[in-house]
């Protein structure tokens, strides 16, 4: 174990370094003397930066100085501003050759489904078509969980407020997302619960669910007793799902969603690069990783475009990024309306800085596909998924796309859980120590132990969770979905 330094410079070209602890005015580190106190996770100037010049971190500009900055100064929102604008123009360059799939990599114990996909859980899901029967779905799941304890890995409901008063593409997106969840390999059986008069009719939703899925449906308005009939249908689902058994499968069968929420100044130093190692390990084994939160790649999109597998994928990334920027500007909002107050308090100054840290979760894998919201992953490698930065919306989209586990990095902490096992990874050891009920893994260890041993430990933890070990959010009963509503409400 090595001593943790006071300041950490990521790239030799950087004009700033990150404080690894609270620093006092007059302290000296990396050849500069601090002119003011600097909180942990915030930045210190290492070189002079003239007004209007770029400030560099991760080897790239994270914004422009709004005034001259001297070495030793605290660098943050008071002297740096974003340089992001609207839609950009990009050119395609073929990427370096992808690495060959790794051989003899340990796998995990998963549930092989009829369509060949592998789940990390064998659960029964109750999915309502509309918010009006959301609480009914919850009551059904609660009663069924008690009745069938031990037969499956759990019975869970996923209520939401939508499915009615929606029109056109907005309604279609809700239907598409719910159908994708109902087709998920972690669900050994699914009860789709409708009301009867909603826009999101069962007759339109059911054809979008995979034919191989173990699904039952119930319209509450037509049922004599929806609780009695619903429990009977769940019993049928359990009878089939309970026959499934975990078997040894290769790591190539894992679909890993990667997400960050409540980021801080350490996220880009520890947790996100660590998760990038996991993305690389899984994709190198022939598996799949999915990156989302498109507004949180603004300013770093070129790093992903440079790894597009071909011209078609490159064009898909450009269209996705520019389309999301237009989504902001069409609503009269700047594309740089990020970071959040919590991010800023943790030391992140601009969206460019946040994005350059966030894209590290994707590692160095070749981007093999671009998915629209509600799409399901259909190719191995790294996929880029359309969804906003909102934690619940983007994590739900990852699950619907087929992620069978999610790696969720955080510097501030959150209790949220989602339909699939969500491994919470703290960017700093203080958070991991303060919130052991929320956090599954301490990435702050990277600063003391180095990246390689911590990466090995996290990959072992992922295998254990994929094989059945509960995450903190699962133990806490934290499971929910959120749908991205973009249309009018009738």
UniProtKB/TrEMBL annotation:
<comment type="similarity">
    <text>Belongs to the UxaA family.</text>
</comment>
<dbReference type="Pfam" id="PF20629">
    <property type="entry name" value="GD_AH_C"/>
</dbReference>
<protein>
    <submittedName>
        <fullName>UxaA family hydrolase</fullName>
    </submittedName>
</protein>
<dbReference type="Pfam" id="PF04295">
    <property type="entry name" value="GD_AH_second"/>
</dbReference>
<dbReference type="InterPro" id="IPR007392">
    <property type="entry name" value="GD_AH_second"/>
</dbReference>
<dbReference type="InterPro" id="IPR013974">
    <property type="entry name" value="SAF"/>
</dbReference>
<keyword id="KW-0378">Hydrolase</keyword>
<dbReference type="InterPro" id="IPR044144">
    <property type="entry name" value="SAF_UxaA/GarD"/>
</dbReference>
<dbReference type="InterPro" id="IPR048332">
    <property type="entry name" value="GD_AH_C"/>
</dbReference>
<dbReference type="InterPro" id="IPR052172">
    <property type="entry name" value="UxaA_altronate/galactarate_dh"/>
</dbReference>
<dbReference type="GO" id="GO:0016787">
    <property type="term" value="F:hydrolase activity"/>
</dbReference>
<feature type="domain" description="SAF">
    <location>
        <begin position="14"/>
        <end position="81"/>
    </location>
</feature>
<dbReference type="Pfam" id="PF08666">
    <property type="entry name" value="SAF"/>
</dbReference>
<keyword id="KW-0456">Lyase</keyword>
């Amino acid at each position: 174990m090595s001593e943790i330094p006071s300041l950490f410079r990521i790239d030799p070209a950087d004009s700033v370094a990150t404080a690894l602890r609270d620093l006092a005015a007059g302290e000296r580190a990396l050849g500069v003397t601090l002119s003011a106190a600097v909180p942990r996770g915030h930045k210190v100037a290492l070189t002079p930066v003239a007004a209007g010049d770029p400030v560099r971190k991760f080897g790239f500009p994270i914004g422009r100085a709004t005034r001259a900055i001297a070495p030793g100064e605290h660098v943050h929102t008071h002297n740096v501003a974003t340089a992001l604008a609207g839609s950009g123009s990009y050119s395609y360059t073929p990427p370096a050759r992808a690495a060959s799939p790794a051989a003899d990599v340990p796998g995990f114990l998963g549930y092989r489904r009829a369509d060949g996909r592998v789940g990390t859980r064998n659960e029964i899901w109750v999915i309502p078509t509309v918010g009006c029967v959301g609480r009914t779905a919850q009551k059904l799941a609660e009663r069924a969980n008690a009745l069938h304890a031990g037969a499956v890995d759990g019975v869970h409901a996923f209520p939401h407020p939508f499915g009615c008063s929606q029109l056109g593409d907005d309604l279609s997106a809700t239907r598409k997302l719910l159908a994708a969840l109902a087709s998920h390999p972690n669900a050994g059986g699914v009860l789709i619960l409708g009301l009867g008069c909603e826009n999101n009719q069962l007759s339109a939703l059911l054809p979008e669910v995979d034919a191989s899925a173990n699904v039952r449906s119930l319209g509450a308005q037509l049922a004599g007793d929806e609780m009695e009939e619903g429990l009977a249908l769940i019993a049928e689902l359990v009878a089939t799902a309970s026959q499934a058994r975990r078997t040894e499968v290769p790591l190539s069968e894992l679909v890993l969603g990667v997400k960050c929420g409540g980021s801080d100044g350490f996220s880009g130093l520890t947790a996100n690069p660590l998760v990038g190692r996991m993305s690389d390990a899984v994709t190198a084994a022939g598996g799949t990783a999915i990156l989302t939160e498109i507004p949180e790649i603004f300013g770093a999109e070129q790093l992903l475009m440079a790894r597009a597998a071909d011209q078609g994928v490159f064009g898909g990334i450009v269209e996705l990024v520019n389309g999301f920027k237009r989504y902001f500007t069409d609503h009269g909002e700047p594309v740089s309306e990020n970071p959040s107050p919590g991010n800023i308090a943790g030391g992140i100054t601009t969206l460019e800085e946040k994005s350059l840290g966030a894209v590290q979760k994707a590692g160095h894998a070749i981007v093999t596909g671009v998915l629209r919201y509600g799409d399901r992953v259909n190719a191995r490698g790294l996929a880029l998924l359309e969804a906003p930065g909102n934690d619940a919306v983007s994590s739900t989209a990852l699950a619907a796309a087929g992620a069978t586990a999610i790696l969720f990095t955080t510097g501030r902490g959150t209790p949220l859980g989602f339909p699939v096992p969500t491994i919470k990874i703290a960017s700093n050891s203080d958070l991991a120590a303060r919130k052991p009920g929320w956090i599954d893994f301490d990435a702050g260890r990277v600063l003391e132990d180095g990246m390689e041993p911590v990466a090995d430990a996290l990959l072992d933890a992922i295998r254990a969770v994929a094989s059945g070990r509960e995450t903190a959010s699962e133990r806490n009963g934290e499971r929910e979905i959120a749908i991205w509503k973009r249309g009018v409400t009738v």
